[in-house]
TrEMBL record:
Transmembrane intervals: none
Domain spans labelled Pterin-binding: 93-335
Superkingdom of the source species: Bacteria
Name under which the protein is recorded: Dihydropteroate synthase
Length: 480
């Protein structure tokens, strides 16, 4: 017997909810019930308990995602499970598992080599601290970069210290002396050996990364591959990714050609030549490059975080490699898997159109200000009216808080957030920090426990030990 689900909603969303459910071709029975409110965002657990007098014989009740309050208490009251749905209707099909299960992002196959470029200039303790930071961000191998004509007297000590802390270590140099020393000190990988320095592989146990001389010479690369295969030793090939306008397109072709000629060799891509040497945000570049790696079965990348704009490159690569593997294994696009890399924009920036915001304003009965955004601008409203503008300064004269410093400061913070979100096309929710995905400050959780009413705003937080603080000015109306 099919499950029967009761969907609770508001008047404005009823038609869209019915249409969305019908388009899903659901394998369950359903009833849609309007709870006597215009806007679904106004529904609270207390209101449901008071107003829902018939559960229509359903097996489960689904309430709007923005519904606040204790749903466990509701479940006990009605004797059937009461659950939150997604915050936005367009997410309903995904909520019901049209992909059947959320992609598993615990797995990855691509290994991240994270280079400490300035290693010769910092001491061993600083190298260890940097390595721990990179490992937290997702690095699998710590690469010590050797600079041309720059002494690195503590190279061996750095390798041994890293190994003692459980790190895999690679050393990046074109100087045979550095590579030989590194191999003897216990480095796991050596970047990079060519036809002239391949003899080092006979002296140490380290896995070499092979390059051509010159680096675009495919015949040279073929020869070093053949020699290592004859030795029966593991190795990695780096066809070298060149910067834009300095051979980038040809280098992409070169990667494809190496994979065509050598279907089973391990390949590395030094993505830093794009992320470091192109002044754009790195998440998109990393996604494109790791998508190429996924298609060509390139299972190693060398990532760097030298330039300020590339300061999250390793963390980005860690999430992207998981997304790409999940997408490839499920034969789907790398879309709707994880939003952690959508820092500037979001899937649905403006959840409520202006008409619904206007309708919501008519239901307000108290003087507390609510702030929302839409394609038309920033909207601030209470029982006395609704004001819209793209410039927060134009809204201030309508607020009447000239003599209330705390309230004015609070509204200023919220309107600034709203302006940023409206201009960028991000989601804005009052009293919540903007969501910058993995680029947000670590430890800052912008989510709010839906079992509680939203805590007081940025400048009005009360010092309370209760896990569910009292409603804020922006949420008083929800419990009405």
């Amino acid at each position: 017997m099919a499950e029967h689900i009761l969907f609770l909603t508001g008047k404005l969303a009823e038609k869209q909810l019915r249409s969305t459910i019908e388009d899903m071709a659901p394998d369950f029975d359903y009833t849609v019930h309007v709870l006597g409110v215009t806007v679904a965002a106004l529904i609270t657990a207390d209101m449901i308990q008071r107003r829902l007098t018939d559960t229509f014989g359903v097996d489960r009740i689904l309430v709007p995602g923005r519904c606040r309050g204790d749903l466990d208490a509701l479940s006990q009251h009605f004797g059937i499970p009461v659950e939150r749905g997604p915050e936005e209707l367009h997410d309903l099909p995904e909520f019901f598992g049209k992909t059947r299960q959320r992609p598993d992002l615990s797995r990855y196959e691509l290994r991240i080599f994270a280079e400490i470029v300035e290693a010769p200039h910092i001491d061993v303790a600083a190298i260890i601290r940097r390595a721990e930071e990179y490992r937290r961000d997702g690095a699998d191998v710590i690469d010590l970069g050797c600079l041309p004509a720059t002494p690195f007297p503590h190279l061996a000590d750095a390798i041994k210290a890293l190994k003692s802390e459980g790190f895999l270590v690679s050393v990046d140099s074109l100087e045979p002396e550095n590579l030989l020393l590194a191999g003897r000190a216990g480095a796991d990988f050596l970047l990079s050996l060519n036809e002239e320095t391949l003899w080092i592989a006979d002296e140490v146990a380290s896995t070499p990364v092979l390059i051509a001389t010159p680096h675009a010479d495919m015949d040279s690369l073929d020869r070093v591959i053949a020699k290592m295969q004859d030795k029966g030793r593991p190795f990695i090939v780096d066809p070298i990714l060149d910067p834009i306008h300095f051979g980038f397109a040809d280098s992409i072709v070169r990667y494809h050609e190496v994979r065509r000629r050598h279907p089973n060799v391990e390949i590395m891509m030094g993505v830093g030549n794009l992320t470091e040497l192109t002044h754009v945000d790195t998440a998109g570049m990393n996604a494109m490059l790791l998508g190429l790696c996924s298609e060509l079965q390139v299972r190693q990348i060398l990532a760097t975080q030298v330039s300020k704009h590339a300061c999250k490159a390793i963390k980005e690569a860690d999430l992207i490699r998981r997304i790409m593997l999940a997408a490839r294994e499920s034969n789907r696009l790398p879309k709707h898997i994880d939003d952690g890399l959508m820092a500037l924009h979001e899937r649905a920036s403006f959840p409520l159109p202006l008409a619904e915001i206007q309708e919501l304003q008519t239901a307000i009965r108290d003087p507390s200000f609510r702030i929302m955004i839409s394609a038309e601008g920033i909207h601030i409203f209470n029982r006395d009216g609704l004001w819209t503008d793209s410039n927060p300064f134009a809204l201030f004269p309508h607020l009447g808080v000239e003599n209330d410093g705390g309230h004015a400061f609070y509204l200023g913070v919220e309107l600034a957030r709203a302006q940023i979100a409206q201009e960028l096309g991000k989601r804005y929710a009052q009293d919540q920090a903007l969501n910058w995905g993995i680029h947000g400050r670590s430890g800052e959780d912008s989510s709010v426990d839906p079992n509680c009413y939203t805590p007081q705003g940025s400048t009005l937080k009360a010092s309370q030990s209760s896990p569910c603080p009292t409603p804020s000015m922006s949420d008083k109306f929800k419990s009405a």
